[in-house]
Every structure is written in C-alpha cells, then in structure tokens.
Amino acid sequence: MFTSLDGCSVLVTGGSKGIGRGIAAVFARAGARVVITGRDESSLRTACREIGGETSYVIADVSVREDCDRMAATTVERHGGIDVLCANAGIFPAARLEAMTAADLDGVIGTNLNGTVFAVQACLDALTASGRGRVVVTSSITGPYTGYPGWSHYGASKAAQLGFVRTAALELAPRAITINAVLPGNIATEGLDGLGEDYLAAMAASVPQKRLGRVADIGHAALFFATEEASYITGQTLVVDGGQVLPESLQALEEI
C-alpha cells in the first residue's frame, strides 16, 4: 500500500481532455486536490464536472510564460501550495518536412518543450516549499524510441523533454524535488475519434497486448512517481506502451 496522497495539491497542464484528463482523474480518485489547465473553458468545465472531487480549472496556454506564472499562483492561492506538477500539455499537428513551416515548428516546440520548462519554472518555489515536490512530464515513445511520418517536429519536442528532465533532475535534487517522465504508446483518447475501426485495429495490432492503452494507465504511472515510495527516483523515464517498442520486426509480432 502506497502512502496516501489525500489532500495533496496537484496541477495538471493540458488536463481538459485525453491523457491529461486521465491523469487528473486518477489523482482526484486518490483524494488529491487538482487544478487542470487548458485553453478552452468549455472543455475545462466539462472535465471538472466529470472528474469530480476537489477539481477546478485555470484557463492557460503553457507556451506563454505569463500564463504559466498565473496558473501556478492560482493553484497556490486555492490549495496553499503545489506538491505535484504534471507537465502534460502537448500538441501533435501533422506536417511533413517538405511542407513544414516555421510556424508549425515553433508551435509544437513552443507548447511541448517550452511549455514544459515554463511550467516547471513557474511552480519551482511552491514545489520547493512543499518539501516533497514532484514533477511528472508526459513525453512519448514517438521521438525517444520511434518515429512516424509527419511528426518529426513532435518527435523532436518529445525527445528534447527527456534531455530537459535529466539535467533538471540534477538542479532540483537539492530542493528535494524529483522529476521523471512517462512515455505513452498508443493510448485510446478522443483524439482518435473519427479515424475509423480499421485504423484503430491496425494501431492495436502493433502492440503485443493487442489493445490500445487507457488514459488511466498513464495516470497510474504518474501517480506512482508522485508517491513517497518513489522519492528516490529522479531523472528517469517509464515507458507505458503495452510492449509496443519491443518487437524487432512485424514478424516478431506474428510469432506471438
């Protein structure tokens, strides 16, 4: 049995939908007080209502430093501090190299990488004051382990997050703050709606477990990193992908 997180203050960026919403729901069920952020107020309101517990929201764009400062300050005002930051916000628009614009690249890097750094910077004082600060970054297997056509900018941003995590772990250690990353594989989210059953079946077929992951699978990994029992783990990555990165070829999957 892990030490309870009941009453802990948790900030989840990009928490209105998808993996972020799943992370927020897992923490809320564990008794944490949760603030979620996003850019669309309607989605945030719906998420808070459906997650339940002591969940509230702040409208914020993590690519804007001032928004990150405001979301951190609001969380401190509501909860008295911040114990856990889940730096989850990310975007994944497709753009092949031959058509990728500077705006495409800046948008992905601005949200996925800069937004992670800005969020950590904004929460730094509160996480230090907590005495047991935790940062959990949502990266991806795409970039660090795999590639996909049209996502070179996304993959670059997700690999860069891991470089940030490893050095940030050194700088945050004297503050008793740990920082780790969760790397999701193919996860069933509303972002896959409309892709069709054949597409989803093909995605599941690439996973040894023959299914897509659930957002709660990522939420539970993040929850583990936030526990007292994980206090000696920092600068590390945890792949949560049903074994997707393991086969060396399609034939290997056919053999199981």
- Please give the CATH class: Alpha Beta
The number of distinct helices, counting runs of at least 4 residues, comes to: 8
Span between termini? 34 Å
Number of domains: 1
What is the β-strand count?
7
Label the overall shape: globular
Structural class: alpha/beta
CATH architecture: 3-Layer(aba) Sandwich
* CATH topology term: Rossmann fold
**Largest β sheet strand count, sense and barrel closure:** 7 strands, parallel
Strand order of the largest sheet: 3-2-1-4-5-6-7
Query: What Rg, in angstroms, do the CA atoms define?
Result: 18 Å
Which strand-content bin applies to the residues?
5-15%
Order of helices and strands: EHEHEHEHEHEHHEH
Overall mean confidence score, pLDDT: 96
Helix coverage percent: 40-55%
Contiguous runs where pLDDT drops below 50 for at least 5 residues: none
Give your account of this protein's structure.
β2, α2 and β3 form a beta-alpha-beta unit. The model has no long low-confidence stretch (mean pLDDT 96). 45% of the residues lie in helices and 14% in strands. α1 crosses α7 (215-226), α3 packs parallel to α4 (102-130) and α4 runs parallel beside α5 (152-172). The protein has one domain: NAD(P)-binding Rossmann-like Domain (Rossmann fold, 3-Layer(aba) Sandwich), CATH 3.40.50. The chain starts with 8 loop residues before the first strand and ends with a helix. By secondary structure, it is an alpha/beta fold.
